[in-house]
Structures are given as C-alpha cells and as structure tokens.
Specification:
By secondary structure, this protein is an alpha/beta fold. It folds into two domains: 191 residues, P-loop containing nucleotide triphosphate hydrolases (Rossmann fold), CATH 3.40.50; 106 residues, Rossmann fold, CATH 3.40.50. Strands 1, 2, 3, 4, 5, 6, 7, 8, 9, 10, 11 and 12 form a twelve-stranded mixed β-sheet that branches. Strand 6, helix 7 and strand 7 form a beta-alpha-beta unit. Helix 3 packs parallel to helix 5.
Length: 357
C-alpha cells in the first residue's frame, strides 16, 4: 500500500483510477499542509535554546538526499578542528525504542545512526525521538560543544545556529506538492529558513543550474554548495573495518540489493565502476531484511552463477545479525564519501564562523 501511494505521489501511476485517488490525496495534502504551517508558527514563537552550537542537516522531501553522508562529513571535519561533536538522531525504524537501553546495534539505534557510529568511533551518536533530551544528555555526559541534528529541518522547536538543507539534484522537489500527494515534507516556502543549501549528486543531474536559480529566487542569502557522492571502496560484510580497493570488480557480474531512498543512484555508481549488474533487488527504504529474503537473493544469484553480492553501507547495518558467511559467495557493501566540488572553503568558513577563536 505504501509503495502504491508513493508511486502516486511521484506520478508514476496514470489513468482514471489513479487520477481519482490523486485528487483524494491532494485533499489530504491540504490538511497536512495546514497542520505543518500551524506547527511551524507555534514552535517558532519561542524556540528552545541549547547550551551548545546546533547544526541542523535536513531535507524538505521524502527519500534519500544524502543528509546522513553530509552529517558524517561535518562531524569528521569539526572533530579534526578540535570540537566535541555529538550527533542526535531519532533512529528511524529501530526495533527497540527504549532510549535507556545500551546502544549496540541497528535494532537499538536504527540503520543510519549505527552506520554513523561505525564510521565515527568516539563521536557520540545519541538516539532519541526527543532531540532536546538527547542534546542535554550529549552535553552532560560527553561534554559536547556542538550537536548535529540528523534530519533536523522539521525540528522547529529548537533554535539552530546553522540550518543546512540537502537537495538531491536528480529529483529536487518531485511534483512540488506536499505529502501524500507529493514528496514535500514542508511547503517550499520553508526553504527561506535555510542558511546553506547542499546540492548532492550534482554529477548525475544536467539541470543543476536551474535548481540553483530556483533556490536563489526563494532564498538569495543562503550559500549554495555543490557536492557528489564519490565511491571510496568496498568492504566485506564479515570484515567491515577493512577497506578494499574500489577497482576490484570491473567487468564482473554481481547481484545488487538495497533498501534505500534512491536505489537508482546506487546502481548508477556501480555501473560507472565498470561492474555488470546481473540481478537487482529493491526493497522499501529502511526495510528490515529477514533470513528468508537473504536466502532467496543468494539462491537466485547461485542459479545465475553469480558469486558476489553488493549492497550499500546503510543496508549492511541491517545484515550483521543474519547468516551470510556460511555461503560460498562474497557479500560486499559500497562505502561512499561526500565530496564538495564547488565553494568548499566557503562551506568550511560557515561552519567555523559559529565559533569564537
């Protein structure tokens, strides 16, 4: 059902029946939009001030825009500059929601926070639906001087020092309608709140200049940054800390499987590396894999004489509890990094400008 509604929201379904359903969804989007506007107005009357710097990284649309990769990028940079950074996340679709439990895997954290934790080591990643409570914990227990709100655009009740909005250059705003008729989580007018726009995957979009012109008209004061997702290397699922060369698979046929917001970009990166895709399995974003599903992917791969499976780093976080090492094939995940290709120093200046040296 959710997949069908998403396809309607992205106008993939046509015809009379789809048109009727879309009309109903548009009516619901008007109600949703009214609720969002009222909430924004109320929460922003008296925002909560935290005793640290607050950097928000969020998006205005459903689906993957690269915000978690940007959070990782910012946390690594600020840590390098000597700041005590903590990341705050709600832990979307985590199985265990008691925030007092030990945070050890994706079941207690969610896949994206767990991926961040695996990459950042001693940088605390605090998972809690209440970001104010999470921030207080980060300040009290970890001495954080900066918190990064992962998926923070809709955190209207918190006063932010820097509001960063990530925009997927390949599909920036959908049909420009609010959910459930479109993919916008807020009205486009909310982009006026942004201090920085980070356009992601710009190397995959031929219309990036049009997006920048549009953003310039809505918010001429915001800094616009262009970035790409660059493949860094592959890792074996059973040895996630060991980075393999990016050029280990050219000419080889592999099976892809993923449960992310933008599987097209993932497949595009794989093809750009000269890798052939024999089979591809796509699941809904944040899907929790079962052993049966993984066994099915493996068996179909073996039937096609494919001995290598490739997935994303975010998906890998949901696979560690499953049995994958007993099969006669490799399960790899692709590690990517965000690279700023224009105005990189300007972006660093905005980050460091938050502090008095």
């Amino acid at each position: 059902m959710l997949s069908y509604i998403y396809n309607l929201a992205t106008d993939r379904h046509k015809g009379l029946v789809a048109g009727v359903v879309k009309s109903f969804l548009y009516f619901l989007s008007l109600i949703y939009g009214l609720g969002v506007r009222v909430s924004i107005f109320i929460y922003r009357l008296k925002p909560y001030h935290l005793n640290c710097k607050v950097i928000s990284v969020g998006n205005i649309t459903l689906g993957g825009t690269g915000k978690t990769t940007l959070v990782l990028f910012i946390a690594q940079y600020l840590k390098q500059k000597g700041h005590k950074v903590a990341i705050l996340s709600r832990g979307y679709k985590r199985k265990i929601t008691n925030y007092q439990l030990p945070i050890t895997n994706y079941e207690t954290m969610g896949d994206e926070p767990y991926m961040l934790k695996m990459n950042l080591g001693d940088v605390p990643v605090v998972v809690d639906t209440d970001r104010i409570r999470a921030a207080k914990l980060a300040i009290r227990d970890y001495g954080a001087d900066t918190v990064i709100l992962d998926d923070g655009l809709q955190q209207w009740r918190i006063k932010k020092d820097l509001d960063i909005v990530t925009i997927d250059a390949t599909r920036p705003f959908g049909n420009r309608k609010l959910i459930p008729r479109g993919i916008l989580r807020e009205p486009l007018s909310s982009l006026k709140r942004a201090d920085v726009f980070v356009l992601t995957k710009t190397n995959l979009s031929p219309t990036g200049h049009k997006i920048k012109d549009f953003l310039g008209r809505i918010n001429p004061k915001a800094l616009q940054i262009e970035s790409i997702h660059s493949p860094l290397g592959f890792c074996r699922l059973d040895k996630p800390g060991e980075l393999l060369d990016i050029n280990i698979l050219p000419g080889k046929t592999v099976t892809l499987f993923s449960a992310i917001g933008d599987p097209d970009s993932f497949e595009g990166i794989i093809r750009s590396l000269g890798i052939k895709i024999g089979l591809s399995f796509r699941f809904r974003d944040h899907h929790n894999y079962t052993q049966e599903e993984l066994d099915n992917i493996i068996q179909k791969s073996k039937d096609r004489n494919i001995d290598t499976l490739v997935t994303t780093e975010k998906d890998a976080a949901r696979l560690y509890e499953l049995r994958v090492t007993s099969y006669e094939l490799r399960v790899l995940f692709l590690r990517i990094e965000l690279k700023i290709i224009k105005d990189e120093q300007e972006f660093y200046n905005r980050l460091l400008g938050l502090y008095s040296y």
